[in-house]
Amino acid sequence: MQGRRILLIVGGGIAAYKTPQLVRLMRGVGAAVTPVLTTSGAQFVTPMTLSVLAGEPVHDTLWDQGAEAEIGHIQLSRQADLVVVAPATADLMAKMAGGLANDLASTLLLATDKRVLIAPAMNVRMWDHPATRRNLAILQGDGVLTVGPDVGDMACGEHGAGRMAEPEAILAAIRAALEPGALAGRHVIVTSGPTHEPIDPVRYLANRSSGAQGTAIAAALRDLGARVSFVTGHATVPAPAGVQVIRVETARQMRDAVEAALPADAAVMAAAVADWRVVNGSDQKMKKTGDLPVLQMAENPDILAWLSRAPQRPRLVVGFAAETQDVTAHATAKRLRKGCDWIVANDVSPATGIMGGTENAVTLITDHGAEDWPRMGKDAVAAQLAARIARELA
Ligand code: C5P
């Protein structure tokens, strides 16, 4: 952390009383701290306390002519290596999620091109409120890192989730965000989402894939420092920040995009690629004529099978298998048929609620056999898989 600069934004919550301790910890490991205080933050911790501990002046207004003349708020947000918001109040999170910029803190957060780590802190009901849940999901989708909150007794007398993480835990998260991850210098291609196969200019064949698992995997690989080429069909979830997004429509476009992204150290093929395309489609919208159209199909390229045997094959090729019965047996056979190294298999029978849901229960098939992972969030599956890939490429 020596010489790294942290822009520390202190929001208006009682947990701000822990922030001076966080500043001391950061300074203690050699980091430079630029403190920014919101108007309500100043109700809980004084500018004097923060500036003495940081050894730097506190910034607390957008309208400081001196500061604007010297560096300006855009500059302030760019010169840091990392932006930390602690405590991140419900209000600050809402502003961030909505892209508001009506005071110094929110303006810096909108102007920065650096990673942002938030330590949420609020009353348990505010934390559980659907609006905060929504804002958190938006922020995570934007690539914002989070630490905490913890569960425990709160200053307001209630008990539950919403206590700000302890300063030591925040420091550990800062360290993790700043240090090059286990996949630094690696390039990984991730395919995700459904492909669309046109019938005419307005109609297409598609499938129900949301792209959620592939998106989570791309974000998890990014979090470990990988350079990610994210080749995606029309997913219903937004693409993660901080990855190279290559949007495609059809299976053939997806294959070409994967080929163009090579070479890579690893590839994770999580897309739901259409097996067939329509060959007697029309350039013009097809009209009702009284006769029923008969669609003729041709087989699409199997991207996973092609990549697994390509001359520029990545060292590690991971495929997916969505099955509705005999998951392990089918996936084990698929691994051999496709020629990939690993298969991540899951049961997508409607009763599991996995397809289009937020959780997944997967079996990882490698050359050592099958491993059943417990049911967990798609983000957690992604994080585990990314860690596993990092181990394999180490
Ligand atoms: O054969 P099946 O579609 O079940 O195989 C699933 C795996 O193969 C997934 O990893 C999927 O991304 C990949 N796949 C592909 N190209 C296809 C079909 C499937 O890359 N045309």
TrEMBL record:
One of its GO terms (cellular component) is phosphopantothenoylcysteine decarboxylase complex. Binds 1 FMN per subunit. Residues 188-394 are annotated as: Phosphopantothenate--cysteine ligase. One of its GO terms (molecular function) is phosphopantothenoylcysteine decarboxylase activity. The active site is at 156 (proton donor). NCBIfam families: coaBC_dfp (TIGR00521). HAMAP family: CoaBC. This is Coenzyme A biosynthesis bifunctional protein CoaBC.
